[in-house]
Amino acid sequence: MKKLILASAIMLAMTACETSTSSNSSSSGKVDYGFSCKVTRTDNSVNVYETLMGMVYDETSTVKLGDDGYYYTEIVTKESYPTAYAADDACEDWREEASHWNDGSHRVVCEGKTVTVYDYSDDADLEEIEDDYNGICEVARRAVESGEFED
């Protein structure tokens, strides 16, 4: 699930460039950049929902049974950006990524300030996916705590 960490890194890089978004201070006086991250799991899916500097990263992996009798994972990633410029930039990056998947498993839809990516994986291990999503939250939490987003 290297793609998930890549997606988080893209989101973090894009938010680092966005300087016009205001941020909040926590009770400790540290800036929290509007950060929140939550991983939820159901019987057949896992979701990570992260907010940071006016952006939203919302990805759900759902395990499904294919026509061939094998399980696969459908991955839907939605990224919402505070500006059209940031969304256009992310859209271009995702379309570039999708162009390298010759099997057509990546589909990118760009509308307004939202980029949605549809993907599939043979990996149907929800526990591993949940661990990866928790890793996304941890990477972002560390970046916020370290002040990586200081202007």
TrEMBL record:
Signal peptide start and end residues: 1-18
PROSITE patterns assigned to the protein according to its UniProt record, in alphabetical order: PROKAR_LIPOPROTEIN
Keywords (A to Z) from UniProt: Signal
Superkingdom, natural source: Bacteria
Identification of the protein by name: Lipoprotein
Organism, as annotated: Fibrobacter succinogenes
Lineage: Bacteria, Pseudomonadati, Fibrobacterota, Fibrobacteria, Fibrobacterales
